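SUBJECT: A protein chain and its fold
Encoding: whole-number codes for local backbone shapes
RECORD BEGINS BELOW THIS LINE
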Amino acid sequence: MKLKASASFVRNTLDVEQALDPIAQSNPDVIIMIGTPEPLSKFITLVKRNSTYSVNSQNISFAAVSFTETTSFINLLGPYAEDVITSQVVPHPQNTTLKIVRDYQNAQLTINATAPFTFSALEGYISGRLVVFALQQSQKSYGPLNRTAFLDSFYTAQNCYLSGLVVGAFCDCSGGYALYPPNKDVCFCNQGMSAVWVTQIKNGSVVDIPSAYYDWEGSCFGFISVHISQPIIFGGSGSFLLQQTSDLRTGVLTAFSEYNSRGGFNGRLLQLYSVDYNGSISSTMDYSLDTLMDDGTIMGFVALSGTSFVEYQYNKLLSTKLPLIGSFTSTPYLFNTFNKNIINMRPSVVDELSSIVFFLSNELLVMNRTGLVYENIGLGFNNVNTYQNICSTLGWTNTSYMLTGKNTQEVCDLMALSDLQAIIIATHDATLMASFINCFKPKNPNMIFVGLSQIDVVRLSSLLNSLSNIYLSSFSPQPSDASSQLANLFVNSLNLYFPGSVPTPIMIYGYVVGRVIYTVLTNMQDSKADVTPESFINSLYSVSSFSVGGVSLGPYISTGPSSCNTGLRTMSIGTVNSAGNFTTLKSMSHSTCLYMPSQITMPIVLIRSAKNANDAYAAGINQAISEINAKGGIQGRLIKLSNLENYGDSSLLRYHVYNASSYKTAICFIGFDRDNEDFIVEQSKGNQIPFIGTRSGSSKLRTPYNKNIINMRSSLVDGASAAAKTLYSDLKFTQVATIWQSNSSYWTEAKNGFHRYANEILKVNDIKDFTISDNYLSTISSYQGVIIFADFSISDVISVSINNTNPNVTIVTMYDNAVPTLLNSKSNFYVSMPFPESTIDSGYNEAYILTYIINNALSEVTTVNYTSLMDALYRIQVFNIDGYPLGPIGPECVAGTCSDYCDCNQMAHQANVISSKNTFTLSFSSCGITFPIITYTFPPFYIVLIVVLTLILIIIIITAILGALYYKINKVNLSNAPKTGYMVLAFTDVQNSTKLWSQLGTDMSKALSVHNKVLRNLIKKYKGYEVKTQGDSFMVAFEDPKKAVEWALHSQKDLLYAEWPPCVMQTFDCRIEWDEYESVLFRGPRVRMGLHYGYAERVYDVVTKRYDYFGNTVNCAARVESQAKGGQIYISEDLLDRVKNDIDMIDVEQYSCMLQETRLLSNNELNGLIGETFQLSQATSQASFDVVQQNQADLPNLDDLYAKPYLPNLPRDNKLNEAILYRLKGSFLLKGISGNVNLYEVMSENLVERDYDTKKSNHSSRRSSISAFESSNQQLSKYVMQKSDGPENVAQQHIQLHQMYRLLQADKKLGVRFSHVDGTSSLPLTPATPPVNNKDYMDGASPARRFSQTSPDVQSNESHVSINSADNLV
């Protein structure tokens, strides 16, 4: 330890202030005090309150040499006494485990039963006991008892034994008393006690520190230093705010405690000196490292935590020449360039992610599309950069987003939009990881998640809603892994030295670091080397390889091209159960120092999509693969089967093939089911990945020749021909019938092949054909043999039925990937097999043989890919696997080199008809059965020529017509699609469509048709391109930005006036809303729109035969649309800048100012209007309602007060006949888009008053209209009261009457009668006549009409209404 400063004060005074500044300037960790309690207590109080001390002054430790009773500190300091340490020269007076203390307490109780037990009293008791001991020794000498004899008794006895407490040895060599002094260095010693106890104040009491007991036995004053063993100190730094820092320290200290319990290094104990760098502030990082370096005694830095700390202090750490051991960070700083002083324990981020990618590709068959979410710390940033580099090396597509506790939902939604197979999560925070997974799982339950290493699996498992498809990586064992020797070893030590601590993976890592350190020290102790930083480093590289609890580290190599400073080189990936138990699925070790992406061995993948993925065919493939991989695979690469299940869904099959087409390691499609022949042929032309061994005999896969399709089986015609040969030639039957599944083109082809072979080869024409729906059982007994052409589920039932009817009839079925019921029980039951088989199974042998054929072909190539596979297959031509002859196959025929096997993609050259006892074979040397060429007698040449020319002309005309139609259709669909480059992409969506579907059902379907028709008509008008639709959402591309904006504006207008089904507008989300001028603002479904201008790439989809667009512009446009509400149009600033010069647009604020000026009327105009109204209302105040109604045409028109202003000089769009307005809506942080994006709303002037707050009531948007109406009434009422001499109620009646006039004037067609204005008599209220069409309904813009259509009172002719105020009117 280093003494940083010292200060003193005058004895017997309290003047301690002069000691404050020297001590404060040294910024100490501990202050040792010598003095009496009063001045020391004052000093402690001043330090605690003094601002000149560091921010950590409250954490300074105080240690005092015992001068008087320790309890004095408690009385003097109060709360500041907490944790004060005091040395003691006697044991704790309450420690009754010592006999001397028990004797003391018993003795004191006999003198004073109420006196407390104190250190001072115990010291006095021991002194008294020492006197008694000396007197007893003097008595034994039988000499005179005097001072000399009394003193000599101490040196004669040397050691005084007092109830188990040894006082002494007293020694005076000159007096001849000590013939055998205990130590030549202490030959003269008059000090009795050699033990020191240490106590600490805790919670207002003085307690022992059991570990701080020192007995300097054999020492005397002035010689203690020779017995003090300096500890071996390693420095650590980390943010104590982070749990991982605490876990690392606990792990290291557990290992250090083990070492110290064994005696340490020749008595020198291992210690960890940790400094808190208090977050990630650079100044506090500097302070923490400077504190460690200034200590001067540390051997090295151990288990530093925090990527930012290590990266920021990297150069300073290296300049110290001290070893940097086991930092808990995967920063590339520590791995990229070898430095002997850097001792890495954990793998690098490259190791971790490369291992995860290997696991994903080789074990889970994730081939391409992965995503990464990472925490906003150094660890996360290092991972995302490395991850992108790995994906770039492998040719994978990737998506990455930064994850914080606040944006989990946003990142979850963005990831859900990506078509990913797996997501890697880079965080040590179990809560953050669980919240993301729990958010994503409902969106895609089958998504694969892999969590980066050293997560707390127990906590994670308790937070997750589901544990399926969740994998975790780890470079050290999980504490819950009972199979791990290291985990068990650590947990036992942790319980011993830190009982109550909960083990974590990071603790185990810290434990490994500590164990390596003490292994090196043990080696140094054995070699008697001095302990220095340099010798420690040299010894570590000398040991080279380490093993901790069965886990290997190293070898560490300091020189040469193989130099390496990385220890742990094994990554484990496994799963966790609900109890938090971790199960390792795969451990990946590498011999090199760094596991680089280029070293990742990607599997060779066979792709299969089947109705039933877990069938015998898959078992056959997997058996062959396991045998091949056990021998090392192909060129060190494993073969894997991606076995996908489509449940017979053709769309799912297409999706599987589409996905697999992007896999760089996919070698072929294998074993596809029949009934997909057209799709296979289509894909084989546009996709270079070949289809091998499809389970179909259709001629579509054989003719015309397609080199990308290789058939292992013989064809349907071959199998049917073999059946015909068996029945007619081998069994010599003459009466044969067929039963045929007539609605299947597949079995129709087989039936026709049977007929042709029988007719043309065997010259048999008498064949009776039945369909499966015919009543064949009644006549089947008259036939010797029956062949069935039908699906297995049908043919098996038919064969059993025939056998039950007549067991003597010979039955032949065509093999359909299943084992028939009668095969082993009836000898006259046969199956026509499409490949050589001695026994029939459900495809196991077929798949097993085919896999080995692929393996044999790949074994002969240097570069493994689908092109080299096909070249090898056609080059080898003939195959023989376990006695099954297959081939030859041949490539495409070239003129002059054709043979029987050119243009041949069928391996089987025989078909077998098998029963339980017999096998009949039909072999053919060509690629399938060939039939003789039939010759005909042709008519004269000129007739043939005319017929041929006529047919050619007809074909040309038909082709031209079809070509023109095809061109016209595709020109309409694709001509407006912008090419790759800059364009506008627009997205639309109907607000609350899910709710509308649940409310409206089929009516919503009608509404959607109206919506689609409006948008598509305008897309065509403005030369846009409809990219795709999804539900009620449109994605549209425009080459011209001006047309894009005009399209959006025109769409909102046309949607407003569209012919929506009447019931649609009865829903809240499609209700009609008016502005204060009674103009319609909303009507029908609210559609939001978002548009963005930028660069996008156009890609042609061979499946949909349409163009699609990709790039950041697509994402940005979608995000812009998501910010808008129903009825709004949002555009990005990029688009606004692009169209400003092409479209006259006015800022909404400028428009509002112009509008306000127009609304102002002069006082004379206002008074004139009111006066005219008053005169008429006064003249008619006593008139009946009918009279008023007759005179309503003469009423003055007050609508001038409320009419919507028109600005004649405003620039207006020619198509809309309205001004186009815009306003800035704000700066938005869009999901997946870097930086903030300014978004603007554009609108036509008639829709500027739209209110997008959907939480308001039906009438809330008219509140401004009501306010204006009431304001005018107040003005009129004031005028009437001034002019009228009548009572107030008469004036009020005038006002009410005038209100009624305005109401009637608003809609003269309305069939409603109101009560008299005084409310005393009522007239029936007739419901308004329903509108004859949607336009009438929309035009009904007055409050009266709205009242008549929406009020629940208007349900019968007996309803009444009374209008007495503006509120009642509304």
The chain has a mean pLDDT of 80. The first strand starts at residue 30 and ends at 33.
